[in-house]
Design brief:
The protein has 207 residues and is an alpha+beta fold. The protein is built from eight helices and seven strands, in the order E-H-H-E-E-H-H-H-E-E-H-H-E-E-H. The protein folds into two domains: 90 residues, Type I PLP-dependent aspartate aminotransferase-like (Major domain) (Aspartate Aminotransferase, domain 2, 3-Layer(aba) Sandwich); 112 residues, Aspartate Aminotransferase, domain 1 (Alpha-Beta Complex). It has a four-stranded antiparallel beta sheet with strand order 4-5-7-6. Strands 1-2-3 form a three-stranded mixed beta sheet, with no helix packed on it.
C-alpha cells in the first residue's frame, strides 16, 4: 500500500537485533522493505547511550538539520559512538544468551502452575517475559514490591532468597514485564528464579 501511494515507510526497530537473532536472519532481511529504520544501542546491545537512524542520503541530511534546529546536537560524541561500535561488533550474537535466560525464568514461572501468575511460553521469544496476574489476588505494584523487597533482619527466609532483589516493570495492574540484558549472568538468573518461586509460593499459600 505505501509503495503504491508513494508513502515512505519507517520502522521503529528498537530491538531489531533481538528479533534477527531469534529468527536467525540478518537485520537487513527484516528491514528490507522500509525506507528508514531506527535501532537502539543501549537496550539489548548494552551500550551506555545512543540510537542509530538509517535512511538514504537526502533523508539523513534533512534529519540532521531538524536535529540541530531542535538542539539535539552533541559535541565530542566520539566516545559515545565508540561504545556503540563496540556493541555492534561484539554484542549481537550474545543476545541469544539473554533469550535463553528469559526462557529459563519463564519456564520456572510456568512450572509453579499458579492460576494467579501466568506466562505464555510460546510468546517468550527474545529477552522479554510478559506475565499476567489475577488482580483479585495480586496486582502489579504488589508483586513489584514483593520481588524487590530485601529484609536484612528476617531469619525465617534463606539469605540467598531474602537478600536477592528482582526488579520488574509493570505495564498495568494485571501485567508485569521482566527484561533480561547483558549484565545479568547465569548465576543472577538462578538467584532470581529462587526469589520469584518463593514469592509465587507465598501467593499460592495465601489462598
Amino acid at each position: 500500500f505505501v509503495k503504491e501511494k508513494n508513502i515512505p515507510l519507517h520502522m521503529d526497530g528498537a530491538r531489531i537485533f533481538n528479533a534477527a537473532v531469534h529468527l536467525g536472519v540478518p537485520v537487513s532481511r527484516i528491514a528490507e522493505h522500509c525506507d528508514s529504520v531506527t535501532f537502539c544501542l543501549s537496550k539489548g546491545l548494552g551500550a551506555p547511550i545512543g540510537a542509530v537512524l538509517l535512511g538514504n542520503k537526502i533523508f539523513i541530511e534533512k534529519c540532521r538539520r531538524i536535529r540541530k534546529s531542535l538542539g539535539g546536537s552533541m559535541r565530542q560524541a566520539g566516545i559515545v559512538a565508540a561504545a556503540g561500535v563496540y556493541a555492534l561488533d561484539n554484542c549481537v550474537e550474545r543476545l541469544a544468551v539473554d533469550h535463553k535466560h528469559a526462557k529459563k525464568i519463564a519456564n520456572a514461572i510456568h512450572q509453579m502452575a499458579s492460576p494467579d501468575v501466568t506466562v505464555n511460553l510460546e510468546k517468550v521469544d527474545t529477552n522479554i517475559i510478559i506475565v499476567k496476574l489475577n488482580e483479585k489476588k495480586i496486582n502489579s505494584p504488589e508483586l513489584y514490591d514483593m520481588l524487590l523487597k530485601v529484609d536484612t533482619e528476617a531469619d525465617d527466609i534463606p539469605n540467598e532468597i531474602n537478600l536477592t532483589s528482582v526488579r520488574i516493570s509493570y505495564l498495568y495492574k494485571g501485567c508485569v514485564r521482566f527484561v533480561l540484558h547483558k549484565d545479568i549472568s547465569e548465576e543472577d538468573v538462578d538467584m532470581a528464579i529462587k526469589k520469584i518461586k518463593y514469592v509465587i509460593g507465598k501467593i499460592i499459600s495465601s489462598d
